[in-house]
Write a structure and sequence with these properties.
By secondary structure, the protein is of the alpha/beta class. It is about 20% helix and about 30% strand. Flavin-adenine dinucleotide (FAD) binds near residues 84, 98 and 302. This is FAD-binding FR-type domain-containing protein.
């Protein structure tokens, strides 16, 4: 049987850096991480959080540990949350993850506010010793000429890593909504990609409003200037234009394959309602081919992951 593309890594907190009012960078360290893989720039990973009292004692070690984990009773099942590789140095056995500290409403956010150097952490991440792709990344711009990248604070690590690996001649815009102005982290982007930080500031609970405004304005202007680069080719099946109605329980996640023509590629990630609004505006409102829009509305205000 082929070795799975990802596995559990046993690590500990090597370093903690408060990067800004809401971002804390954790460098996880261990010899185990020398086998860490990193298949794509927006590589997602999972952190397995310790249970109070029993830590990681109940985490199954079977080959099919995920089914065993799911079968555990609620009070013995360690919470698992999704994060992104911000940077990794497998040669040194190091992995950086930027955590948004959003208070004590969730186990991951609670963990980051109390984390100490030396704390143990289990991380589910790509295994470099496997020939399989981890499947945990979605950045597929293909031959796109213009890039539209948009996300909230939870997408800042992925967007930063995406921007850093773009070719020097890349063109487009990246919009990042963050809690406050001090959360604009240093990042490197090609000169042709405008990076716009959008602090919520006093509109602190108005998640996604600034992102929706700014991206809508940019997209309207871009489509008006270059309508042919956004729309569906005449040969595309009608279903490509149709967006199903989404109810509250739908997974708001649709990622296209890389297109080989050179139009727009949009990558949208963050709180579900803002990302859904943006995708709807692009596809329904402006007629952008849905195969040009990767959308990941992966966290919902008021609802825990899992
Ligand atoms: C592919 C992917 C990559 C991700 N990468 C990162 C990353 O690199 N860094 C990162 O910080 N997050 C990232 N996230 C988001 C992270 O998984 C969620 O924010 C997660 O809900 C945090 O878990 P929690 O235990 O803190 O809160 P949960 O227990 O899941 O939720 C508890 C409550 O907190 C609210 N909540 C959750 N997240 C936030 C937030 N950011 N701000 C305000 N309220 C919130 C929920 O709506 C809920 O009401 C990523 C998610 C996905 C799917």
């Amino acid at each position: 049987m082929a070795k799975p593309g990802y596995r559990v890594f046993d690590t500990e907190v090597g370093e903690l850096r408060r990067m800004s009012p809401h971002f804390v960078r954790v460098t996880f360290r261990s010899d185990d991480l020398r086998e860490l893989g990193w298949d794509g720039p927006d590589q997602r990973i999972k952190v397995v959080l310790p249970l109070e009292g029993s830590g990681f004692d109940a985490v199954p070690s079977d080959a099919d540990w995920f089914s065993a984990w799911r079968a555990l009773p609620d009070d013995r099942r360690n919470p698992i949350r999704t994060y992104t590789i911000r940077d990794a140095r497998p040669d040194a056995g190091e992995l950086d993850v930027d955590f948004v500290a959003h208070g004590d409403s969730g186990p991951a956010s609670r963990w980051i506010s109390a984390a100490r150097v030396g704390d143990r952490m289990l991380v589910i991440a790509p295994d470099a010793t496997s020939d399989e792709d981890s499947g945990g990344w979605e950045w597929h711009p293909g031959a796109a000429r213009t890039l539209l990248i948009a996300g909230d604070e939870t997408a800042v690590p992925a967007v930063s890593a995406i921007l850093e690996q773009l070719p020097a001649g890349a063109r487009g815009a990246a919009f990042l909504e963050v809690p406050e102005a001090g959360d604009a982290l240093p990042l490197r982007a090609p000169a042709g990609v405008e990076v716009r930080w959008l602090p919520r500031g006093e509109r602190s609970t108005d998640y996604g409003a600034r992102l929706v405004e700014a991206v809508t304005e940019w997209a309207d202007a871009w489509v008006a200037a270059d309508p042919g680069a956004a729309t569906v080719p005449a040969t595309a099946p009608a279903a490509v234009r149709e967006l199903p109605a989404l109810d509250d329980d739908d997974v708001l996640w649709e990622v296209p394959e890389a297109a080989d023509d050179g139009g727009l590629y949009a990558w949208l990630a963050g709180e579900a309602s803002a990302i859904t609004t943006l995708r709807r505006h692009l596809v329904k409102g402006l007629g952008v081919d849905r195969r040009r829009v990767a959308f990941m509305g992966y966290w919902k205000l008021g609802r825990a992951e899992g």
